[in-house]
């Protein structure tokens, strides 16, 4: 079993159909080397974490654990615009999305590794970050997604078996990466993959971020600032009307110079209500995923 762990900071990739000749050294996701179970049993790594944290865990009351989960769930709900609940104290939870693809929450003990190994998992793909707020950032996701999916694509081709993709709760970044993989590599239409994902797991992947990562498009982009740990708008910039959830955002509008150009038409198609890729577009994306350097 292999374990892939990405560093907290990742960088933007060119998104004009992932042209390899446009790639720069600063554009790639930075990930730790792949660790083979024969060389370094990841159970040992998790055991070290479990031992080092045992004292603080034993001193923490059940009420404190529940409060921690409540705070995380509230943050996730506010940032993602959907009512989602994560209970860390209940342990690992996951769902098979496809026979070769699982989306779940973070591993918490060596026993979790054994459990995944026993069901055929060959790759554990970790997307946890510090701070967790970035886990809910659609723009951050768009910037990082192509390089992350490249790592997943190569690992699944190399290892075979089942891939277990997780972030902290398995409700935001992890399902988004799984969704992009299904869309770019496995031949699903985006909405088809999204319906399948939601039928298997309660989650809220950011579809617009995946569309934007597929083609860097003109359009209406919403955003917020984080000030002292709180999401807030700048009232001196463009502000959206209040949405159905009672939220307002800042926004910027980016438009193509020539809306009738071929490139503009492709972008419009890929960010429409039911986007799909042509056979040739998927070939280009796979070529890009294969050519991204593992050492960048």
From TrEMBL:
<keyword id="KW-0904">Protein phosphatase</keyword>
<dbReference type="InterPro" id="IPR045204">
    <property type="entry name" value="DSP_laforin-like"/>
</dbReference>
<dbReference type="InterPro" id="IPR020422">
    <property type="entry name" value="TYR_PHOSPHATASE_DUAL_dom"/>
</dbReference>
<dbReference type="InterPro" id="IPR029021">
    <property type="entry name" value="Prot-tyrosine_phosphatase-like"/>
</dbReference>
<keyword id="KW-0119">Carbohydrate metabolism</keyword>
<dbReference type="InterPro" id="IPR052832">
    <property type="entry name" value="Starch-Glucan_Phosphatase"/>
</dbReference>
<feature type="domain" description="Tyrosine specific protein phosphatases">
    <location>
        <begin position="143"/>
        <end position="201"/>
    </location>
</feature>
<dbReference type="InterPro" id="IPR014756">
    <property type="entry name" value="Ig_E-set"/>
</dbReference>
<dbReference type="GO" id="GO:0019203">
    <property type="term" value="F:carbohydrate phosphatase activity"/>
</dbReference>
<protein>
    <recommendedName>
        <fullName>Tyrosine specific protein phosphatases domain-containing protein</fullName>
    </recommendedName>
</protein>
<dbReference type="GO" id="GO:0009507">
    <property type="term" value="C:chloroplast"/>
</dbReference>
<keyword id="KW-0378">Hydrolase</keyword>
<dbReference type="InterPro" id="IPR000387">
    <property type="entry name" value="Tyr_Pase_dom"/>
</dbReference>
<dbReference type="GO" id="GO:2001070">
    <property type="term" value="F:starch binding"/>
</dbReference>
<dbReference type="InterPro" id="IPR000340">
    <property type="entry name" value="Dual-sp_phosphatase_cat-dom"/>
</dbReference>
<dbReference type="Pfam" id="PF16561">
    <property type="entry name" value="AMPK1_CBM"/>
</dbReference>
<dbReference type="GO" id="GO:0005983">
    <property type="term" value="P:starch catabolic process"/>
</dbReference>
<dbReference type="GO" id="GO:0004721">
    <property type="term" value="F:phosphoprotein phosphatase activity"/>
</dbReference>
<dbReference type="InterPro" id="IPR032640">
    <property type="entry name" value="AMPK1_CBM"/>
</dbReference>
<feature type="region of interest" description="Disordered">
    <location>
        <begin position="244"/>
        <end position="263"/>
    </location>
</feature>
<dbReference type="Pfam" id="PF00782">
    <property type="entry name" value="DSPc"/>
</dbReference>
